[in-house]
Structure formats: C-alpha cells, structure tokens
C-alpha cells in the first residue's frame, strides 16, 4: 500500500482529530528541527510551540523520531515529477540556484545531514520524500544533455552528478545563507565550465565570496 505524504498520520480510535492541530504540530516540529537540531528538540517544546498539550502530540505520534520523520514528509508533500523536470542543464542550474538561495531550505538540509549518525531515519525520510526524486531528475537531465552532444565526450553524466552534488554540499557549508540566486547560479556554472560545459555566467553577476558566516 502506498502512503500519501500529504495525508495526516493514521488516527487511532478515539475522539475526532483537528487537521489544524495536526498541521500546527508538524510545522512546530519542523521549525524546531531547523532552529535547534534533532538532538535538542523535544515533544514538550513542540507541544508548546504548536499551542497544544503533550498528550495531544502523543495521541498522534508515538515518539519524537516518528514525529520528525512525518514533519519531513509533510514539508516535501508537494514534490511532483513535473516540478523536478528540466528541459536542459541551464534550467536545472537555475532551479538549483533558486532552491539554494532560500535560507530556510539551506538550514533544513544542513540539519538533516547533521543527523546522519544519531537520527539516520530523518535523512532517509528526506531522501524518500525528495532527495531521490531530485537525484533521478538530475541524472535524466545530464544524460539527455550528453545524448544531445551538449556535454564534452569525456564527460560521464554519473560522475558529473557526483561533482555537482558535492559542490551543492560545499556551498551549503561554506557560503552565506543570504547568497542571491544569481550568485548561486554563477557558482554552479563555474563548476560546469571546469568540465567543458559551454555555458556563460549569468549577466550582471559577480562571483560570490566564500564565508563561514550565516
């Protein structure tokens, strides 16, 4: 059976539930995960932020990990294949730039990768809800570009995907969360030029300076 990430979690027998309470709890859990990290987030904090009791939270979610997993699925509930389909590599890069210029998205991804040892369920939930779909879309775009002769003959789409993914993680770690989309785009186009992709930098853009401040 396929579970719809957009749907609220199954309801045990008892009183009818409020959809507003469900969404308030999920939103509070996600906000606290971004602000404090999984290890510093508790059911009590989530209940307080959502404006409900701890009992209300526990009636919906058996434990903190299950709640955080559900919050991640809820965050990416609107992901569709159409939203992750690009006509060419420049369009893909522009979409990456838009995504990596959103401070909240950047902080969430850093938090998720930071839980890989202590709460690996969270990164797995992200991959199932969003990351794996995006990865397939990137691979399809690069393979199409290779077949169309847009990539140099020596360029392997699979290896290039690894290079771009590493560049994305480097940008998340080393550049400010306030970096503009056009500068993120210039960053990825600079990486692509190193493998021979014939794409000029965006107009009116200056190369961003690396910084550890956010």
Automatic annotation (TrEMBL):
Tell whether Transcription is among the UniProt keywords: yes
Superkingdom in the source lineage = Bacteria
Query: Could you tell me which residue ranges the HTH tetR-type domain spans?
Result: 19-79
- Residues of the DNA-binding region: 42-61
Keyword Amino-acid biosynthesis found: no
Which keywords fit this entry according to its UniProt record?
DNA-binding, Transcription, Transcription regulation
Q: Which InterPro entries match?
A: Homeodomain-like_sf, HTH-type_TetR-like_transc_reg, HTH_TetR, Tet_transcr_reg_TetR-rel_C_sf, TetR_C
Name assigned to this protein: TetR/AcrR family transcriptional regulator
């Amino acid at each position: 059976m396929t579970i719809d990430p957009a749907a609220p979690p199954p309801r045990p027998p008892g009183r009818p539930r409020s959809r507003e309470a469900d969404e308030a709890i999920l939103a509070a859990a996600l906000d606290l995960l971004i602000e404090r990290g999984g290890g510093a987030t508790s059911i009590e904090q989530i209940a307080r932020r959502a404006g409900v009791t701890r009992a209300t939270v526990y009636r919906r979610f058996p434990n903190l990990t299950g709640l955080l997993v559900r919050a991640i699925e809820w965050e990416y509930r609107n992901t569709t294949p159409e939203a992750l389909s690009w006509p060419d590599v420049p369009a893909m890069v522009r979409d990456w730039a838009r995504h990596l210029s959103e401070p909240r998205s950047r902080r969430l991804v850093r938090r998720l990768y930071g839980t890989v040892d202590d709460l690996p369920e969270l990164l797995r939930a992200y991959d199932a809800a969003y990351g794996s779909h995006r990865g397939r879309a990137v691979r399809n775009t690069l393979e199409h570009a290779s077949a169309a002769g847009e990539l140099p003959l020596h360029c392997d789409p699979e290896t290039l995907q690894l290079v771009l993914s590493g560049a994305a993680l480097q940008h998340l770690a080393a550049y400010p969360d306030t970096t503009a989309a056009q500068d993120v785009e210039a960053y990825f186009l600079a990486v692509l030029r190193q493998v021979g992709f014939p794409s000029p930098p965006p107009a009116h853009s200056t190369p961003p300076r690396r910084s550890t401040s956010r």
